[in-house]
Amino acid sequence: MQQTLAATELEERATISASVQQALLSENFSRLEEISHTYRKEKSRSSSGLWKLTLFYAGIGRAIDAQSVGKDPEAAFKALEDKTDRWIQQYPKSPSAYIARSMVLIGRGWAHRGDGTSSTVKPEAWAPFRKYIAMARQNLESNKTVAAKDPRWYETMLTIARAEGWERKQFDRLLNEALDQEPFFYQTYFMALEYLLPKWHGGTQEIEDFANDAVRRTSTQEGRGMYARIYWYASQTQFQNDIFEKSLAVWPRMKDGFEDVVSRYPDAWNFNNYAKFACLAGDQRKTRELLKRVELVPMAWNPPSLHGQCADWAHR
Q1: Residue-wise over 24-47: b if at least 16 C-beta within 10 A, else e?
Q2: CA-to-CA distance for 151 and 144, rounded, in angstroms?
Q3: C-alpha distances out from residue 95 to 52, 77, 79, 212, 220, Å
Q4: Residues 186-219 pLDDT 10s
Q5: Hey, which residues does 51 pair with through a beta bridge?
Q6: Please, is 291 exposed, middle or buried when counting C-beta atoms within 10 Å of its C-beta (0-12, 13-18, 19+)?
Q7: Is the pTM of this model over 0.85?
Q8: Residue 222 and residue 213: Cα distance in Å, rounded?
Q9: Treating both helix axes as pointing N-terminal to C-terminal, what angle do 73-90 and 95-113 enclose, rounded to 10 degrees?
């Protein structure tokens, strides 16, 4: 099978997000509008199948990090809020402008809280954390008519739901509304999965049920691919390389899912990850087959030594 060059996916991600980062920091709002409108309208994807709209917002996130990390956080976030306010003033019908503003507010809240577990959070950090998360929510809800035309609105609201610890019924209402509006936006599933992880509000059976429901919702376009993608993301966010020991992931289902992923998006990034999970699942034959046909993408293998270990094992 002819594959794309190994660096294609990662280069595409870097190029788009860097362009968006620069546009926001330089306040080139017309360029931001052009890019986001095109990606929303066309629902265009990267070579691995990721929505380019996701890469657009990754660029917004990069701009927030570049402006705020290692600096006076209050001044930095205030400057970012001012930028998004000017974007909204110039384009009051822009979904992206409102979403970006809430991303800044969420970032400001987490800067106060920190990324550790709740037991590590300083008592005085909770009030500003909750304040800025609430401001982000109010901004999204009050501008929903405009901003919810973009599926990132729901992804951002799901982020807020996790931060605020919503009850499951309230969370499910939001999630079902999101998936009814756009069932093929991967990030909705991934952000919902964050809520369902054992380290937050869920458990392994809930993840398995969610993965199977995702397949049901998306099979007309994705086949069985969402089962693989959801556990792939669960591996990244909690289970790491113990995905088959610490979750209920079923390798035959995940394998079928990966087959659908690579048949639709035959990118080397996807093939490398397929090979990695085949190795972790102990599927020696499939690991050997994939390693023979795939061009190495080192970033897909964590730790980097895993590729060599899997290759040695597969060819015994």
Answers
A1: bbeebbeebbebbeebbeeeebbb
A2: 11
A3: 16, 20, 20, 31, 28
A4: 999 999 999 999 888 889 999 999 999 999 999 9
A5: 45
A6: buried
A7: yes
A8: 13
A9: 170
